[in-house]
Amino acid sequence: MPNSQMTKNAVRCDENDRHGRATRNGSQEMLRIDIETTKTFATLICAGQLILGVETETLRTMVQSRTEENIRVDLSGVEKIDASGLGLLVELQSWARETGHILTLIDPSEAVWRLVILTKLYSTLEISYTAVAAPAGEHGGIGYDEMIA
User: Fold this and answer.
1) Nearest-angstrom CA–CA distance, 91 and 85
2) Which pLDDT value is given to residue 139?
3) How many contiguous H segments (helices) and E segments (strands) does the chain have?
4) Greatest Cα-to-Cα distance within the chain, rounded to the nearest angstrom
5) Which string of b and e fits 70-101 if b means at least 16 CB within 10 Å?
6) What DSSP letter does each residue of 41-76 carry, written as one string?
7) Is residue 141 one of the residues assigned to a domain?
8) Does the residue 13 lie in any domain?
């Protein structure tokens, strides 16, 4: 990003016992969240599964602890999402409105988008399909009706 300093951090959310063995579904990595920040916004890049348990709690904590006004959650790497994960996205959108933050969900994966459409939450969530999220209320050049068709 030109003329701005960006920092990156990574958080790995594993459900392992204290010896490092997988404790659920034989998978070592359930959710990974990389964070890219500038002075004006933070982007949390999610990969893995956004499901009931430590995964949703980790994302909730990480989003709500951000001090930036603009928070973007990149969901392009989310392979699996359940009702708890979707509920968390709605909860975070509500939290953002109540606290004066702008929360944008960027590039939801097919799994996420399918559940959003099934539950008809596309008008509730601020979603962008661009590499850089459009300002709140804009849909980045893609016709909104085309996204939900």
Assistant:
1) 10
2) 45
3) 4, 6
4) 50
5) bbbbbbebbeebbeebbebbeebbeebeeeeb
6) EEEEEEEEEE-TTHHHHHHHHHHHT--SSEEEEEEE
7) no
8) yes
Domain hosting residue 70, numbered range: 7-132
CATH number of the CATH domain containing 123:
3.30.750.24
The total domain count for the chain is: 1
What average pLDDT is seen over the chain?
Answer: 81
Beta bridge partners of 77: 47
DSSP type of residue 143: -
pLDDT in tens, 84-140: 999 999 999 999 999 999 999 999 999 999 999 999 999 999 999 865 544 554 444
**Coil, strand or helix at 128:** strand
Is 25 within a domain? yes
Q: Which pLDDT does position 19 carry in this prediction? A: 30
pTM: 0.73
pLDDT score of 2: 47
What DSSP string describes 6-41? -EEEEEEE--B-TTS-B-STT-S-SEEEEEEE-SSE
Question: At 26, phi and psi to the nearest 5?
Answer: 65, 10
